[in-house]
Amino acid sequence: MSNILIIGSGGREHAIAWKLAQSEKLGNLFIAPGNAGTEEVGTNLNIGVSDFIGIKKAVLQNKIDIVIVGPEVPLVEGIHDFFLADDDLKKVAVIGPQKYAAQLEGSKEFAKKFMIRHDIPTAAYESFTKDSLEEGYVFLEKLNPPYVLKADGLAAGKGVVILEDLQAAKDELTDMLTNEKFGDASSTVVIEEFLDGLEMSCFVLTDGENYVNLPNAKDYKRIGEGDVGLNTGGMGAVSPVPFATDEFLQKIEDRVIKRTIDGLKKDGISYKGFIFFGLIRVNNEPMVIEYNCRMGDPETEAVIPRIKSDLLDLFVATANNDLKNSIIEIDNRSATTVMMVAGGYPEAYENGKVITGIPSVENSLVFHAGTTKNKQNEIVTNGGRVIAVTSFGDDFKKALEQTYVNVDKIKFEGKNFRTDIGFDL
Ligand code: AMP
Ligand code: GLY
Asked: Are the CB atoms for 271 and 264 separated by under 8 Å?
């Protein structure tokens, strides 16, 4: 029996909690800080994801065996290193890489250098700082539009800017480097070649030596129908990705996944946790757009329900460096997720709107993202992305139909969602 603490409060963390709660080997399940959904399957602890001291107390008090880190911020801040450096905590397994390896997500430049070093296909690039601004302009002049500028560090999903106009690209570069548009995160900027193609994501769970492939997925990041408008955390997801043929997946495995795991080993970088490969298909070849050191959200809400195996077994195997003996069983059906968001999101929005209709949902899964309970014990909105609905189907279209039937039943003031998830497939 294992006692588990999940760090985070989104739909991803609810999906992981929901899945772990089905394991017969689960002892007690805690989620910090969690949401109104995680409370149904475990115990929420009112501790922030970066409050390492608070997390330590909770781990010792509740005799936690495994900590699963949902979001990137505590990983990039070094939560795993914090555990390893503490005599009381070092026996506790942490699923999520140490700070150095988390740079695969935390530093675009680190990730690009890693990919180039290990011959992993990615867009050509150069990186610049305030001192090499002029060289940055010259590099932009050599590229064809559109221009892709990436703040090196974490910028809450807003650090990538794509522009058609050369002068606008130069102005953006100046803004990022000299005016610190994204603070410290843009003190270095990666400029890279624009890649044109369909995007998808693959996920593995690794103990640093071996890995298991999780189901792949495609997410929809823009707020507007037809993929226009501002970037969000993600408005919906489809798993598996229909265009990802066995042949294409084999290329991903050979050229991206294996080279990444081998590259980590060659570089002497230990890694325990999820790796998220953000990919784009160019001329039927996979290219890596980004790494994340965690699962995606809302991809997790479509991916986790398709895993038939006991997820707790997989985490225990990861903790014990024993993934080579693990087999993962996947449901062949499609799963689709639609995210309901607060009115105004991803710009300003209000919290505290009462959510109704969840009990009337049938034949779909409801994963809470930004929800909490008010004083009257009603479930209310508490974030931009509020609730994800996931359904199965023989193909993604059937799964989507079912999802939308139930999305219509859940109501709150200002509710918004995309009606066109999967439109490009
Ligand atoms: P990232 O934060 O690195 O995932 O980038 C956000 C989004 O920008 C990606 O999902 C892509 O849609 C787009 N993007 C990033 N890099 C490129 C590129 N080299 N070419 C085209 N689109 C890109
Ligand atoms: N949905 C994209 C992400 O989690 O980064």
From this structure: yes
242-276 b/e with 16+ CB inside 10 Å = b? eebeeebbebbeebbbebbbebbeeeebbbbbbbb
Contacts of 352 (CB under 8 A, 6+ apart): 374, 380, 381, 382
Domains and CATH numbers, the chain: 2-98 (3.40.50.20), 124-192 (3.30.1490.20)
Which of 127, 160, 228, 293 maximizes ligand 1 atoms within 8 Å of its Cβ, making it the mutation to test the pocket?
A: 160
- The whole-number pLDDT of residue 184 equals 86
- Residue 226, classified by CB atoms within 10 Å of its CB into exposed (0-12), middle (13-18) or buried (19+), is exposed
Cβ atoms of 405 and 338 within 8 Å: the answer is no
Residue entry with tokens 């992981």: 16
Q: Does the model's pTM come out above 0.90?
A: yes
* CA of residue 350 to ligand 2 center, whole Å: 23
Instruction: List residues near ligand 2 (CB under 6 A).
Output: 219, 233-234, 292, 296-297, 299
Q: Which two tokens stand for residue 162?
A: 């794509």
The whole-angstrom separation of Cα 215 and Cα 241 is: 9
CB atoms within 10 A of CB 179: 9
Rounded to whole angstroms, what are the CA distances from 19 to 106, 117, 338?
28, 37, 19
Tell me, what's the pLDDT at 180? 84
Q: Are 336 and 380 in contact (CB under 8 A)?
A: no
Tokens 């899945």, located at residue: 19
Most confident by average pLDDT, 24-28, 126-130, 171-175: 24-28
CB 109 within 8 A of CB 127: yes
The length of the chain is 425
For 216, other C-beta atoms within 10 Å of its C-beta total: 23
Higher-pLDDT residue of 400, 157: 400
